[in-house]
Structure formats: C-alpha cells, structure tokens
Amino acid sequence: MTPETMEKLDRFREEALARDIPTADVERWLGTLHRRATLEPQVNGPVVGRLGGPLMLPPDVPDPEYPLVASLDLAALPQDATELPLPPDGQLLLFGCPEASAWSSAAPLGSAVYIAAGTAVEERWLASATTRTSPATKRYLSFRESCD
Predict the structure, then answer these.
(1) In which domain of life is the source organism classified (predicted)?
(2) CA end-to-end span of the chain, whole Å?
C-alpha cells in the first residue's frame, strides 16, 4: 500500500481506538478492506492507460461487439494495486456500451481482451465503434490506490 493509504488507515485506527472500540473489532474491520485501483482521466499519478484511442488487436482476435472504452498497460499498474490475479505485463482492453444501463439487461454489456506483451497487433477500424471511440490525445488514465 502507498504511504498515503497507510496513513489514512492509521488515522482510522487511532480514531476508533480513541472512541473505545475494542482493538480486535478495529483490526477485524480493517481486515475487511480490499485494495483497489482507481483510474482517473486526470493525470495525478502514474499513467497506466487511456480512454478510447485506436483499436489495436492481434490478427487472429475477432472484432469486438462493443467499442473500446479503455486500454490498460499492466506493466505500469503496481502488482499489488488490486487483489485481482492480473498478469504482470501486456495490455488489457476493455470494451463496453457506456450508454446502456446495467440494470436494463441480463446480457453482458462489455468484454475484456488480454494481449500478452510482445504480441503482434494491427489497427482495426470498426464502423460500429468509430463514432464512440475517442482519440487518445489527452485521454490518459492515471492510477490512484484506495481501499473499500
């Protein structure tokens, strides 16, 4: 965890103990926290991906059903950023339909494609996705650690 996150947890612990909450209860609550990586369109931390941009896929990967929402550089994301078993490098492409409501359908509204580092890719132009895919310019994602 980052020093900033550790400091927040220490302040929580101190405040809870000052309110006479038993140490065992405080530690149990802290033990339920899960690390997460928050991606932000403002670059306030390390750049780990981008919103939209060109669609780069290996030649043998079928065209996605949904437009490219974001791509993540897994080598730039700290390994302990989340509790997800992510590969240490490569690209994770996230596809989805941002206009659709997750509550309106039982059908999947997106997908993900992992591309191993060093895999040959080619740019794809999809008529259904080009209007929803933003240029990569100034659309970078930065990483911020937090806990839930």
Answers:
(1) Bacteria
(2) 13
Considering the entire predicted model, what is its pTM?
Answer: 0.68
CB atoms within 10 A of CB 101: 8
73 touches 140 (CB < 8 A): no
Determine the Cα–Cα distance for residues 64 and 66; give it in Å rounded to an integer: 6
Give per-residue pLDDT as tens, 59-74: 999 999 888 988 999 9
CA distance 36 to 80: 9
Q: Residue 96's CB: how many other CB atoms inside 10 A?
A: 20
Is the CB of residue 82 less than 8 Å from the CB of residue 35? yes
Give how far the C-alpha of residue 135 lies from the chain's centroid of Cα atoms, to the nearest Å: 19
